[in-house]
Write a structure and sequence with these properties.
By secondary structure, the chain is an alpha+beta fold. It has one domain. Helices cover 39% and strands 31% of the residues. The protein contains 5 helices and 6 strands; from the N terminus they run ββαββββαααα. It has helices spanning 24-28, 90-97, 107-130, 138-150, 152-168, and strands spanning 5-11, 14-22, 32-41, 48-60, 64-71, 74-80. It has a 6-stranded antiparallel sheet. Helix 3 (107-130) packs across helix 4. It is globular and about 50 Å long. The termini are far apart. The model has no long low-confidence stretch (mean pLDDT 89).
């Protein structure tokens, strides 16, 4: 079970929120599974809408470390981690080129999901660079996971800043 860090805010009678967490059990096995949970709750019980994204790093015997992004039930990207050098990479440009409502049907949810994925990928790249001296795969994945866990507050701040910009730009 991931340890989530959550931030919420209200817009009228609707509460929006964003939770970030790292799956600790999988990390102990050398798999990074970073969860981004964007949600909207109405006043009445049962009026909750949730989009969960997973950004994972797993070992592939042929391709090495793979970065995978799943939003909801859809696998969106799979790339070798070695090909991801900065946030302006193929993944970053692709995420930013899609209107935010595609990621959840709601402008705020979509902006939270898109911004959360983008900020997390940026931190994954930083952690990958910070742990370059550690050999692949399991030891380095665990070190990267610890690095990500330490930077959850920064990921959360970047996500909220980018989501605000996304909303002000009407989802673009």
């Amino acid at each position: 079970m991931p340890d989530f860090t959550t931030i919420t805010f209200r817009r009228g009678d609707i509460e929006y929120g964003l939770s970030l967490g790292l799956e600790e059990e999988q990390l102990s096995e050398g798999i990074i599974d970073f969860k981004i949970r964007a949600f909207r709750r109405g006043r009445e019980p049962g009026q909750e809408f949730v989009v969960v994204s997973h950004i994972t790093i797993e070992e592939d015997e042929e391709k090495g470390a793979l970065l995978k992004i799943a939003i909801g039930d859809e696998d969106v990207f799979t790339l070798p981690l070695a090909e991801v050098f900065d946030e302006e990479s193929v993944i970053g440009r692709a995420l930013e080129s899609v209107h935010a409502t595609v990621f959840g049907g709601d402008l705020l949810i979509g902006c939270l999901v898109r911004s959360g994925c983008s900020a997390t990928i940026g931190e994954i790249i930083s952690c990958k660079n910070d742990t370059a001296a550690i050999p692949w795969f399991r030891r380095r994945a665990v070190a990267m996971g610890k690095c990500l866990r330490q930077h959850i507050p920064e990921i959360l701040m970047k996500t909220m800043f980018r989501a605000t910009r996304c909303v002000l730009q009407a989802g673009f």
